[in-house]
Amino acid sequence: MKLLISIFLWATVFSAHSVNARQKPSNMERVYQDLTTYFHKQAKNNDVAGSSLAVVRDGELIFHQTYGVANVISKKPIDKNTIFHWASITKTITGIAIMQLQERGLLSLDDPVTKYIPELRQVHNEYGSMDEITIRHLMSHSAGFRNPTWPWGGFKDWHPHEPQHWEQLVAMFPYTDIQFKPGTKWIYSNLGIIFLGRIIELTTQDDYEYYIHKNILTPLKMYRSYFDGAPYHLKSDLAHSYYLQENGSYKEARFDLNTGITVSNGGLNAPVDDMMKYINFLLGNAHADAYKFVLKKSSLEKMFSPQIAISSDGSDAPENAGGQQMGLSFFVGELNQTKLIGHSGNQNGFISHIYLAPEYNTGYAIVFNSTNNSRKVDRNILSYLLEKEFLYYPDSN
Length: 397
Known about the structure:
The chain is of the alpha+beta class. The protein is 29% helix and 17% strand. Helix 2 runs antiparallel to helix 12, helix 3 crosses helix 6 and helix 3 (90-103) packs across helix 7 (208-217).
């Protein structure tokens, strides 16, 4: 799984954008029509198989459009019920679970990871003791662990998608090293997030998936969201996923996959409607009980607070990463005095992005079931929304 962080392209792409003269258009319906036309044109011109784009403002869904097909063979269209795989956006939910456990007094972000996973003392660390690596380091990708979960291939049809069992990871610890002094720099690490999932299981005595369902998905009324293989009653709504090949054809990927022990790193599946509930929660617009039973707003604010700068030489860092920050499980950026928060995902033919503009109580998600040019579409949609000041309109009337 690799990170897609188009959020870090803002500063160079939109440097000419002005935020000082924001006026609501006189005809919002025309604005929505124009966005729909642009979205469909971008998807078509870039050979996207299927996609969905939705925007919430002030707690309300103000825009939702789909494009293309969920299944290239049957031509079943993407619709409001289509379920996508959200890949690394799962990491943000894992982070929320860790913050829950801190609120409940079951752990501290500054606890050493070895307090919960003593096996990690087998990892080679030339920079000091493994006991110095904290939960906070894992959440901010500053612990020094490598990016890949597994240090070799796994791309043949008969290979498991990822290691399926904890013991497989532990067996690799003596062959794993810390790549820099923890807390001094940033390198995106799938491996570190899996350790957070393990801490959740050891602390609560629940399987990761069960804990998240009980404590996050159900309280947020994300009733059609799940992890790994689709429940039988939702299989028909699951989008297939594809790799776009050089000849322009689509090759089907593993769209109904089992992420195994890596589930806390990238196992979430959900329809866009459920993800809008999640974005509304992040923006502070969920029902009051969400901030009582899921996470306090003050804890969310801590997650959105910068912890460490994104280094341009870090693994999976894009070219223009300089000046952007890593929060606690969220990426934080600023463009022309506007704070932007987000995360992305890329796995087995699915590409996904969520963006928040808290100052304007607005957020959106865009997700694709095919790779390659989908990254370009995401960047262009973000550019369009900012240039047209779509994120800044005070209401949808």
